[in-house]
Amino acid sequence: MMFIVDANVLIEAKNRYYSFDIAPGFWYWLEKACSRDVVCSIEGIREELLQGKDELSDWARDHRDFFFPLDDRTAQVFPGLSGWARSQNLTDDALNAFAADAADFMLVAHASAHSCTVVTHEKTGNGSRKRVKIPDA
After folding, report:
1. Is the pTM value of this prediction over 0.90?
2. Residue 33 φ/ψ region, left for φ over 0, alpha for ψ in the -120 to 50 degree band, beta for the rest
3. Quick one: pLDDT at residue 134?
4. Structural domain of residue 124, as residue ranges?
5. Pfam families attached here (predicted)?
6. What radius of gyration, in Å, describes the C-alpha atoms of the chain?
7. Which of 4, 54, 112, 115 is the most exposed place for a label (fewest CB within 10 A)?
8. pLDDT reading at 46 higher than 80
């Protein structure tokens, strides 16, 4: 089983429990786990991380293989994911935000297309109509 990691997991790890100077082994483990198809992320998450100017953005820049690019299999999930979102009685703003947040949308699509388990710190929206939360998708 492959785990696919949201940006907030990597950011939280860097900021709290697994900073690069305290726990370099964690980051080494991520590299090795990726090479064994255990954990990965997607290019959209990498792009989010590259917006920063810190050790995590450097790590994302240096570990491109950790972040899968968009592929045909993932793109085939887009219509179904969009249809699911439209069926959830969400506000127009929530639907537009989900479609515009390419990283979250593609993270969920990649997980669906490749049978991955999403790892995120996001909490369920408990039926909120204002935003699509990753655990609800």
Report:
1. no
2. alpha
3. 55
4. 3-136
5. DUF4411
6. 15
7. 115
8. yes
Query: Residue type for 105, please?
Result: F
Exposure letters 32-45 (e unless 16+ CB within 10 A, then b): eebeeeebbbbbbb
For residue 47, the surrounding DSSP H or E stretch is helix 43-50
- The string of pLDDT tens digits covering residues 63-117 is 999 999 999 999 999 888 878 777 777 777 777 776 666 788 889 999 999 999 9
Q: Tell me the C-alpha distance between 50 and 52, whole Å.
A: 5
- Are 109 and 96 a contacting pair, CB within 8 Å? no
Residue range 15-26, pLDDT digits in tens: 999 999 999 999
User: Which residue, among 107, 106, 126, 132, has the nearest Cα to 118 in the 3D structure?
Assistant: 107
What φ, ψ does residue 67 adopt, rounded to 5°? -115, 110
Tokens found for residue 68: 């899968």
